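Second opinion, please. Pick holes in both lines of this record:
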Amino acid sequence: MNKNSFEKRSIFDEKLINDLKKKKRTYPFYTGNYYPFFKRVADIGVSTLALIVLIILFPFVVIAIKIDSKGPLFFIQERIGLYGEVIKIYKLRTMCVDAENMVNEETFNQEGNPFVQIQDDKRVTRVGKILRRFSIDELPQLFCVFKGDMSFIGPRPFIEKEIEMLTRDHQFRHMIKPGLTGLAQVSGRGELNQEQRFEKDMEYLEKLSAWLDIKILWLTIISVIFSKGV
Protein backbone atom coordinates (compact mmCIF):
# COMPACT_ATOMS: atom_id res chain seq x y z
CA MET A 1 0.00 0.00 0.00
CA ASN A 2 1.25 3.51 -0.86
CA LYS A 3 2.16 5.27 2.37
CA ASN A 4 0.61 8.47 1.07
CA SER A 5 -2.80 6.84 0.49
CA PHE A 6 -5.05 5.16 3.01
CA GLU A 7 -8.17 3.24 2.09
CA LYS A 8 -10.76 2.46 4.74
CA ARG A 9 -11.22 -1.29 5.13
CA SER A 10 -12.32 -3.83 7.72
CA ILE A 11 -10.44 -7.00 8.62
CA PHE A 12 -13.67 -8.65 9.79
CA ASP A 13 -15.93 -10.73 7.56
CA GLU A 14 -19.47 -9.53 6.85
CA LYS A 15 -21.04 -12.07 9.22
CA LEU A 16 -18.95 -10.89 12.17
CA ILE A 17 -19.71 -7.24 11.40
CA ASN A 18 -23.44 -8.02 11.32
CA ASP A 19 -23.11 -9.99 14.58
CA LEU A 20 -21.43 -7.00 16.22
CA LYS A 21 -24.14 -4.61 15.05
CA LYS A 22 -26.88 -7.03 16.15
CA LYS A 23 -25.38 -7.50 19.62
CA LYS A 24 -24.81 -3.76 19.96
CA ARG A 25 -28.56 -3.17 19.63
CA THR A 26 -29.15 -5.32 22.73
CA TYR A 27 -27.18 -2.96 24.97
CA PRO A 28 -29.04 -0.23 26.89
CA PHE A 29 -26.54 2.46 25.90
CA TYR A 30 -27.44 1.98 22.23
CA THR A 31 -31.24 2.12 22.51
CA GLY A 32 -33.58 4.49 24.27
CA ASN A 33 -31.17 7.23 25.31
CA TYR A 34 -28.98 10.01 23.95
CA TYR A 35 -25.71 8.75 25.40
CA PRO A 36 -23.97 8.10 22.03
CA PHE A 37 -24.81 11.66 20.87
CA PHE A 38 -23.58 13.33 24.06
CA LYS A 39 -20.48 11.09 24.10
CA ARG A 40 -19.56 12.34 20.64
CA VAL A 41 -20.17 15.96 21.66
CA ALA A 42 -17.97 15.43 24.73
CA ASP A 43 -15.26 13.83 22.57
CA ILE A 44 -15.17 16.87 20.30
CA GLY A 45 -15.15 19.33 23.19
CA VAL A 46 -12.54 17.57 25.34
CA SER A 47 -10.25 16.78 22.41
CA THR A 48 -10.38 20.41 21.25
CA LEU A 49 -9.36 21.69 24.68
CA ALA A 50 -6.66 19.03 25.04
CA LEU A 51 -5.26 19.83 21.57
CA ILE A 52 -4.76 23.43 22.71
CA VAL A 53 -2.60 22.09 25.55
CA LEU A 54 -0.70 19.92 23.06
CA ILE A 55 0.01 22.95 20.88
CA ILE A 56 1.57 24.70 23.88
CA LEU A 57 3.75 21.69 24.75
CA PHE A 58 4.57 20.81 21.16
CA PRO A 59 7.65 23.04 20.53
CA PHE A 60 9.40 21.77 23.66
CA VAL A 61 8.58 18.12 22.92
CA VAL A 62 9.78 18.45 19.31
CA ILE A 63 13.14 19.84 20.41
CA ALA A 64 13.59 17.12 23.05
CA ILE A 65 12.78 14.26 20.65
CA LYS A 66 15.00 15.60 17.87
CA ILE A 67 17.97 16.19 20.18
CA ASP A 68 17.63 12.78 21.84
CA SER A 69 17.51 10.52 18.77
CA LYS A 70 17.33 10.38 14.99
CA GLY A 71 14.06 9.65 13.25
CA PRO A 72 10.60 11.09 12.56
CA LEU A 73 8.68 13.07 15.16
CA PHE A 74 5.55 10.95 14.92
CA PHE A 75 5.01 7.21 15.06
CA ILE A 76 2.12 6.23 12.78
CA GLN A 77 0.55 2.81 13.03
CA GLU A 78 -2.51 0.96 11.77
CA ARG A 79 -4.86 -0.25 14.50
CA ILE A 80 -8.25 -1.95 14.50
CA GLY A 81 -11.29 0.15 15.36
CA LEU A 82 -15.08 0.03 15.19
CA TYR A 83 -16.39 -3.12 13.43
CA GLY A 84 -12.84 -4.16 12.59
CA GLU A 85 -12.12 -1.07 10.51
CA VAL A 86 -8.45 -0.28 10.05
CA ILE A 87 -7.61 3.17 11.37
CA LYS A 88 -4.41 5.14 11.63
CA ILE A 89 -3.26 6.32 15.04
CA TYR A 90 -0.55 8.83 15.80
CA LYS A 91 1.89 8.93 18.69
CA LEU A 92 4.96 10.97 19.49
CA ARG A 93 7.90 8.70 18.73
CA THR A 94 9.31 7.16 21.91
CA MET A 95 11.41 4.39 20.34
CA CYS A 96 14.37 4.10 18.07
CA VAL A 97 13.84 3.95 14.32
CA ASP A 98 12.54 0.61 12.97
CA ALA A 99 11.52 -0.57 16.47
CA GLU A 100 8.54 -2.54 15.10
CA ASN A 101 10.86 -4.85 13.17
CA MET A 102 12.76 -5.62 16.38
CA VAL A 103 9.80 -7.39 18.02
CA ASN A 104 10.36 -11.09 18.54
CA GLU A 105 7.52 -13.05 16.90
CA GLU A 106 7.45 -15.28 19.99
CA THR A 107 5.94 -12.31 21.83
CA PHE A 108 2.67 -12.97 20.03
CA ASN A 109 2.69 -16.63 20.99
CA GLN A 110 2.62 -16.12 24.75
CA GLU A 111 -0.39 -18.04 26.00
CA GLY A 112 -3.01 -15.78 27.55
CA ASN A 113 -1.16 -12.55 26.82
CA PRO A 114 -0.12 -12.05 23.20
CA PHE A 115 0.47 -8.31 23.51
CA VAL A 116 3.66 -6.45 22.76
CA GLN A 117 4.59 -5.18 26.21
CA ILE A 118 8.21 -5.61 27.17
CA GLN A 119 9.61 -4.62 30.55
CA ASP A 120 12.71 -2.38 30.35
CA ASP A 121 12.35 -2.22 26.57
CA LYS A 122 15.74 -1.29 25.11
CA ARG A 123 14.03 0.23 22.06
CA VAL A 124 12.64 3.12 24.12
CA THR A 125 14.68 6.33 23.99
CA ARG A 126 15.57 8.46 27.03
CA VAL A 127 13.04 11.15 26.14
CA GLY A 128 10.60 8.40 25.21
CA LYS A 129 10.65 7.07 28.77
CA ILE A 130 9.60 10.48 30.08
CA LEU A 131 6.88 10.91 27.47
CA ARG A 132 5.50 7.46 28.27
CA ARG A 133 5.69 8.02 32.01
CA PHE A 134 3.26 10.94 31.72
CA SER A 135 1.40 9.52 28.67
CA ILE A 136 2.38 12.60 26.63
CA ASP A 137 3.19 10.35 23.67
CA GLU A 138 -0.52 9.47 23.38
CA LEU A 139 -1.71 13.07 22.95
CA PRO A 140 -1.57 13.14 19.10
CA GLN A 141 -4.36 10.54 19.16
CA LEU A 142 -6.60 13.44 20.13
CA PHE A 143 -6.73 14.13 16.39
CA CYS A 144 -8.23 10.63 15.96
CA VAL A 145 -10.82 11.43 18.64
CA PHE A 146 -11.69 14.77 17.04
CA LYS A 147 -11.94 13.11 13.61
CA GLY A 148 -14.26 10.39 14.94
CA ASP A 149 -12.09 7.30 14.46
CA MET A 150 -11.69 6.99 18.23
CA SER A 151 -13.46 8.07 21.40
CA PHE A 152 -11.87 9.55 24.51
CA ILE A 153 -13.04 6.57 26.58
CA GLY A 154 -13.26 3.02 25.21
CA PRO A 155 -11.30 -0.22 24.71
CA ARG A 156 -7.77 0.46 23.51
CA PRO A 157 -7.22 -0.38 19.80
CA PHE A 158 -4.98 -3.34 19.01
CA ILE A 159 -2.76 -3.93 16.01
CA GLU A 160 -3.95 -6.54 13.50
CA LYS A 161 -1.37 -9.08 14.67
CA GLU A 162 -2.81 -8.94 18.19
CA ILE A 163 -6.38 -9.20 16.89
CA GLU A 164 -5.50 -12.45 15.12
CA MET A 165 -4.66 -13.97 18.51
CA LEU A 166 -8.10 -13.20 19.98
CA THR A 167 -11.16 -15.44 19.94
CA ARG A 168 -14.33 -14.51 18.08
CA ASP A 169 -16.04 -13.65 21.38
CA HIS A 170 -13.25 -11.20 22.13
CA GLN A 171 -14.14 -9.27 18.98
CA PHE A 172 -17.32 -7.96 20.60
CA ARG A 173 -15.14 -5.24 22.12
CA HIS A 174 -15.19 -3.75 18.60
CA MET A 175 -18.90 -2.92 18.69
CA ILE A 176 -17.92 0.56 19.91
CA LYS A 177 -15.12 2.93 18.96
CA PRO A 178 -11.72 2.37 20.58
CA GLY A 179 -10.58 4.91 23.16
CA LEU A 180 -7.56 6.84 24.34
CA THR A 181 -8.08 5.27 27.74
CA GLY A 182 -10.46 2.69 29.14
CA LEU A 183 -11.51 0.57 32.09
CA ALA A 184 -8.72 -1.95 31.49
CA GLN A 185 -6.12 0.83 31.48
CA VAL A 186 -7.18 2.17 34.88
CA SER A 187 -7.52 -1.36 36.32
CA GLY A 188 -3.87 -2.32 36.10
CA ARG A 189 -3.18 -2.55 32.37
CA GLY A 190 0.32 -3.98 32.78
CA GLU A 191 -0.87 -6.71 35.16
CA LEU A 192 -3.84 -7.89 33.08
CA ASN A 193 -3.63 -10.84 30.70
CA GLN A 194 -5.69 -11.24 27.53
CA GLU A 195 -8.80 -12.69 29.22
CA GLN A 196 -8.76 -10.12 32.02
CA ARG A 197 -8.53 -7.28 29.52
CA PHE A 198 -11.45 -8.69 27.58
CA GLU A 199 -13.48 -9.00 30.79
CA LYS A 200 -12.80 -5.35 31.61
CA ASP A 201 -13.75 -4.27 28.08
CA MET A 202 -17.03 -6.21 28.30
CA GLU A 203 -17.66 -4.87 31.81
CA TYR A 204 -17.33 -1.38 30.35
CA LEU A 205 -19.90 -2.22 27.66
CA GLU A 206 -22.31 -3.66 30.22
CA LYS A 207 -22.07 -0.64 32.53
CA LEU A 208 -21.60 2.04 29.87
CA SER A 209 -22.75 5.45 31.09
CA ALA A 210 -21.64 9.06 31.29
CA TRP A 211 -20.77 8.60 34.97
CA LEU A 212 -18.53 5.63 34.22
CA ASP A 213 -16.75 7.65 31.52
CA ILE A 214 -16.19 10.47 33.99
CA LYS A 215 -14.84 8.00 36.57
CA ILE A 216 -12.40 6.47 34.05
CA LEU A 217 -11.29 9.94 32.92
CA TRP A 218 -10.67 10.95 36.55
CA LEU A 219 -8.71 7.76 37.30
CA THR A 220 -6.68 8.33 34.12
CA ILE A 221 -5.78 11.85 35.22
CA ILE A 222 -4.72 10.54 38.64
CA SER A 223 -2.58 7.83 37.00
CA VAL A 224 -0.86 10.39 34.78
CA ILE A 225 -0.24 12.82 37.67
CA PHE A 226 1.36 10.08 39.73
CA SER A 227 3.40 8.92 36.69
CA LYS A 228 1.76 5.51 36.43
CA GLY A 229 0.93 5.91 32.75
CA VAL A 230 -2.19 4.49 31.08
